Amino acid sequence: MPTTVLDIEQHLLLLELSAPFDKRDVQLARRRMAKRWHPDVAPQGRQFEHERHLKAINEAADQLERLAEGFRGGNVSRDAVRASAAAARAARAEAGKRAYEAEQRAREHASERAKHDPFASRVPDHSVVHRYARCLSYPEWGVGTVAGIYFSGNPDDAGANGAPARADGAEGDGAGDAGLQWARVRFSHGVRTVPAGSMRFVDFSKPDPAEERVERFMIAAQRAMAEGEYELAAQRLVYARDAEPRNVTVLRQMTLAFWQAGNLDAAARSVRDWARVDGGRPAPHRFAARIYEDIGAMDLAEEAAERAVVRGPSDAGAWERLGRLRLQLRDREGALKALERALSLGAGEDVRDLLVQALALEPSVAPTK
């Protein structure tokens, strides 16, 4: 077995850290990467990749912390990193040389087999190398350029049947830790360390299906809304809306995200787009009434609430909202009609108070001819 060489440079790349560094720098880098790649913030179906990547980050941080503690002054210099990187490159070159020799022997064997058994296989060996990729965990990063593919751990420690090791590090069927594959990808905002399972390579010769873009940004937006980052969720939903402008689910979520983020003007535009697509249902008009009321446009809110009760006449809450808005507009007869309808549908005691306020209004006088 070849001697394992500690590659400090690779650990620094994994932690997005630069030399010189000390133990405190490693701890801060560990916290920063843990916030980004914790399994709890992973999108649906990507928890395993986030868990493996975070495990590799923690192992690298532990080694760098022990290394920093052993150095004089607790500070690892650039020269030490360069020396470690040179030794690691030499070890990788030796491993590559052995792999090349093994490949040549395999080629000679295949050539001999093709000569004596030409019809053994009719499928040629081939591989396609992609340069551009996007991160499924953070789709708003866009398409990035893959700067390098790296491996952590020893892939030879996998089980005899080729099955990878468990994410929690427990052994099963004699398997140890499988190798972790990760990449350095250069996006428009900077270089990021991305686990291979979170990447999807981009082939620009084929169009990106709209439904895939919608699914990608919807999952990311739902995660952002769960974390309370409504502005980020709204931006991701704008990208999903651009892919499918008439997707009702996207328009509804975008309206809610803008509303929760406090961007009422954008929420009003979104709810109007939603109503154009799904105007036969009361839901977009109920949202429109609430948003217009928050803006202060009571006349528009009253019109939207009226459309909501027309499309959902059995909703007591919609009738109550319509009566309250008409009460604010001092429409006595309209408010009484809406509030009485809400009471007949089983509304609460608050409607009775609104009804008393409506009865206290002066009746409108018709203009004389």
Summarize this entry quickly:
With 369 residues, the chain is an alpha+beta fold. The protein has helices spanning 8-15, 23-37, 47-70, 78-116, 210-226, 230-243, 248-261, 264-278, 282-295, 298-311, 316-328, 332-344, 350-360, and strands spanning 21-22, 75-76, 132-135, 143-152, 180-187, 190-195, 199-201.
Q: What's the number of extended β-strand segments?
A: 7
Distance between the termini: 106 Å
Major sheet details = 5 strands, antiparallel
Number of helices: 13
- Which bin fits the share of residues in helices? 55-70%
Strand order of the largest sheet: 6-5-4-3-7
> Which structural category fits the helices and strands?
alpha+beta
Described by the principal axes of the CA atoms, the overall outline is elongated
Mean pLDDT level: 78
- Unreliable runs, pLDDT <50, ≥5 residues? 119-128, 157-177, 365-369
The helix/strand series, from N terminus to C terminus, equals HEHHEHEEEEEHHHHHHHHH
Return Rg in Å: 31 Å
User: Beta-strand percentage?
Assistant: 5-15%
